[in-house]
Amino acid sequence: MEDVLLEGGYVRKLWIGEAKTYADHLLRLDPDSRHRRFGGAVSNDFIRRHADKARGFNVVIYGFFLDGVLRGACELHIDHPMFRGEAEAAFSIERDWQSHGIGSVLLERMLLTARNRGVRKLRMYCLAENERMQQLARKFDAELSFDFGNVVGDVDPPRSTALSMMREWAADSYSVASAIFDAQSRLLRTA
Ligand SMILES: CC(C)(COP(=O)(O)OP(=O)(O)OC[C@H]1O[C@@H](n2cnc3c(N)ncnc32)[C@H](O)[C@@H]1OP(=O)(O)O)[C@@H](O)C(=O)NCCC(=O)NCCS
C-alpha cells in the first residue's frame, strides 16, 4: 500500500461514463494477463463489449490510477437479488504494475464493499497455475476460503456494521479528493 501511495497512485471506484477508460486498461493487458483475467483467449471486441456492459447498480469497479491512467482494476458483480448474498470478482493489473501491492489494496477495498452489500459468498475464478492470485487470496485467509482444485474461491466477509459502512464512505471521500488533487496537479504541470 505504501509502495502505491509513494508512487502517487490512488484507488477509487470507477464512475459512470468511464467504460472507455476501463476498456483501454483491459486492452493494455499483455496476452498472459488477459488470458488469466478472462480465463481464456478473448478478442478486443469482446473486451470492449465487456467494459461497456460492466455498469449498473449491481456492479462495482475499483481502479488503481497513476498519472491519471487506469493501471489496475477489480470488478465486483453482485448476483441477481434472487441469489442475494452472492457475487463474483475479477482482477486485472497491467504487467508493469504487478507485484507492487496493488492487487492487495484492491482486494481489501473490494472485500469491504462486498461486506457492506451483504455478500456472503464471493466467487473468484482463477486458473490453477495462477500462483500470484492464489498468494494474494491467502493473504486474506481469515476472510477467504479457497479450493484451488476447483479454482473457485469462497469468501465469507463478516456482516456489515455501521463502522464498515463508515470505512467505505471515508475511503470513497478520500478517493474523490485524491482524484481532484491528481487532476489539478497534472493540469498545473502541463500549464
Ligand atoms: C493476480 C493479480 C491480481 C495480483 O495482483 P498484484 O498487484 O500483482 O499482487 P500483489 O503485489 O498485491 O501481491 C500479492 C501477493 O502475491 C505475491 N506475489 C507477487 N508476485 C508473485 C509471483 N510471481 N508468484 C507468486 N506470488 C507472487 C506477493 O508476494 C504478495 O504476497 P505477500 O504480500 O504475502 O508477499 C495481478 O498480478 C494480475 O492482475 N494478474 C493478471 C490477471 C490475473 O491473473 N487476474 C486474476 C484472475 S481474475
Structure commentary:
- The protein is an alpha+beta fold.
- It has a single domain (2-184), classed as 3-Layer(aba) Sandwich (Aminopeptidase).
- Helices cover 45% and strands 23% of the residues.
- A 7-stranded mixed beta sheet has the order 1-2-3-4-5-7-6, with helices on both faces.
- The longest helix has 29 residues, at 162-190.
- Bound molecules: coenzyme A.
- Coenzyme A binds at residues 33, 36-37, 90-93, 98-104, 126, 130-133, 135-136, 139.
Short description:
This protein is an alpha+beta fold. The protein contains seven helices and seven strands. Strands 1-2-3-4-5-7-6 form a seven-stranded mixed β-sheet, with helices on both faces.
The coarse overall form would be globular
* Helix percent band: 40-55%
Task: State the domain count.
Answer: 1
For the record, what is the CATH homologous superfamily label? Answer: Gcn5-related N-acetyltransferase (GNAT)
- Terminal Cα span: 30 Å
Structural class: alpha+beta
CATH topology: Aminopeptidase
Number of E-type strands: 7
Over all CA atoms, what is the radius of gyration? Answer: 16 Å
Rounded average pLDDT: 82
CATH class: Alpha Beta
Largest sheet: 7 strands, mixed
The DSSP helix count reads 7
